[in-house]
Amino acid sequence: MTRSVLLRILREPLFAFVVIGGILFLAYAGIRARELEPVILRSSARAELIASFETLKGRKATADEIARIERDYVTDELLFREALENGLHLSDPTVRSRLVEEMRLRITGPLPDPTDEQLVNHYSENLDHYRSEAVVTFRQVYFAQRPPDPATVLAQLRQGQPVTSQPFRHGREFPQYGHSMIRGMFGQPIVEALSVAPLGQWIGPLQSPYGWHYLQATERLPAALLPFDAVRQQVENDFLVAQINAAVDRHVDELRQRHAVSVER
């Protein structure tokens, strides 16, 4: 075949159509081949599944139970493949987060146990993470609705006179409650009020999601540094997380060199 004839064939629209059709056919065939890839339960995996079942039950598996184990394996494998085919690993937030977390762990692999020196250094470099929470001891008088004369109620409390109030689900006395616990129960405004209220003096009424509260702070303890021995396990956990995060950051920096990344605002 001469060069001119070859060029004329290459320019023919029919030739382009045939080439594109062939490419699409091969791509489809590849997808179908992956879809039809056989599900194989290897003898070693089968033996492990049966052994796990027998360990859990404390007895030998029956023939029916072994058949069920085999069916369950095939069922799980087929559903897993269908989940991938339907893009659940891309669209389902739960599946996506589990895969991301698994990938984070695989980047580092098993980490060696940290040395005492590494843990002490991590503790020393992050002292703010290892402080006890500030606490407040206080009591309250509760009203579901704002009192019609709130100033009179406050005056009675400050004078030590009895006040008719309503029961509160969490009680009246709150000994050494941390700020986070108070915040969760009453909201941030009450945390702030208790943090600055003169000790022993009634204040209020202050509103929470439950209603209205008169409060008397009687003790405040500031946040304090916790000794290393008391938080050693937390320090070790934090150290390992920091190691994983550092490794993931390095890996992601490499991935950014291979992928276009854009953030729309």
Textual characterization of the structure:
By secondary structure, the protein is α+β, with helices and mostly antiparallel strands. The protein has a domain at 132-221: Chitinase A, domain 3 (Roll). The protein is built from eleven helices and four strands. The protein has helices spanning 3-11, 13-35, 43-57, 63-85, 88-91, 93-108, 116-125, 150-158, 179-186, 188-196, 232-258, and strands at 135-143, 173-178, 202-207, 212-221. Strands 2-1-4-3 form a four-stranded antiparallel β-sheet. The longest helix has 27 residues, at 232-258.
Keywords:
elongated; single chain; 58% helix; 265 residues; Chitinase A, domain 3; alpha+beta
Percent helix range: 55-70%
* SSE arrangement, N to C: HHHHHHHEHEHHEEH
Secondary structure class reads alpha+beta
CATH architecture of the domain at 132-221: Roll
CATH class value of the domain at 132-221: Alpha Beta
Write the layout of secondary structure elements.
Blueprint: H1 3-11, H2 13-35, H3 43-57, H4 63-85, H5 88-91, H6 93-108, H7 116-125, E1 135-143, H8 150-158, E2 173-178, H9 179-186, H10 188-196, E3 202-207, E4 212-221, H11 232-258
Antiparallel strand pairs: 1-2, 1-4, 3-4
